[in-house]
Amino acid sequence: MGNQTTTALKNMRNFINLLKPKSSPVDLDPILKVIPELEQLNSYSLSGIQVLKKLYSLGQDVVNRKIPGDFVECGVCNGGSAAAIASALGNTERKVWLYDSFRGMPATREIDGSEAAKYVGRCVGAEEKVREAMRIVHFPEESCIIRKGWFENTFNEPLPRAVSILHIDADWYDSVMLSLKTFYERVADGGVIIIDDFGHWEGCREAFYDFIAQRGLKPLLERFGHTQAFWVKGRVHNREFTHRWDIP
Ligand SMILES: C[S@@+](CC[C@H](N)C(=O)[O-])C[C@H]1O[C@@H](n2cnc3c(N)ncnc32)[C@H](O)[C@@H]1O
């Protein structure tokens, strides 16, 4: 290759380099800049970092809108999603209530689908891992209440009075239905209800549709990821948003 061609190539490369952003996309990520610990939660959750970031944003959203109440998660496993949401609530008075058998997934029924039956007894989380995840995001231990056992038992123990954010990640029809029946009334107006398995498990979706039909609710359902759905209690339209690309 002649000297002239080499110089021309070098100049072209230099020009292309000038056009490239100076930092990597991760450096530019506004959420990871504020909470870099979220990346460490990846190994404590079955969801990926993108989902954890959205969950964090939803936690921030209820704090910014000053919605009163605690955070409840039904289906915690090793605490990754719980810690992602809790990290947004850290400097508030809010408590975190976490419900899990820590014995894996319970039995399925026909409504959950044949694929679901293969997961009975799987996803066994550990309370100590949950506490570890909470420490990563510096969430105060005394504000974290872990209710270990099957929902049908632990939901009979004293419950939070008001809930600002309810995250249901419990996969099967009965678990999701019981979570909705137990906590929906306690969610404050403007609070956020997240259903993790809407797109993944048929039984979860059936429970959601049965619950809203029974109550005559018509939630304005928002989706993210391949499976997550959420709505803001009492919200009937999205017309007021100026930043329409943000999570409402
Ligand atoms: C998909 S995992 C939760 C994943 C977790 N949120 C994360 O970030 O990785 C579902 C959890 O729900 C729990 N679970 C489902 N139904 C339950 C029930 N009826 N009672 C207690 N725990 C239940 C299981 O023990 C399991 O740990």
What report would you give on this structure?
With 248 residues, the protein is of the alpha/beta class. The protein has one domain: 3-Layer(aba) Sandwich (Rossmann fold), CATH 3.40.50.150. Helices cover 38% and strands 15% of the residues. The radius of gyration is 21 Å and the shape is globular. The model is unreliable at 20-26 (pLDDT under 50). S-adenosylmethionine is lined by residues 45-47, 75-77, 80-81, 100-101, 104-106, 123, 125, 150-151, 169-172, 175.
Helix/strand layout:
Layout: H1 3-19, H2 25-28, H3 30-34, H4 49-64, E1 70-74, H5 80-89, E2 96-100, H6 114-117, H7 127-136, E3 144-148, H8 151-154, E4 163-168, H9 173-183, E5 187-195, H10 202-215, E6 222-224, E7 228-232
Parallel strand pairs: 1-2, 1-4, 2-3, 4-5
Antiparallel strand pairs: 5-7, 6-7
The chain binds S-adenosylmethionine.
S-adenosylmethionine (SAM) binds at residues 45-47, 75-77, 80-81, 100-101, 104-106, 123, 125, 150-151, 169-172, 175.
Per the principal axes of the C-alpha atoms, what is the gross shape? Answer: globular
Ions and ligands: S-adenosylmethionine
The CATH class turns out to be Alpha Beta
Total count of strands: 7
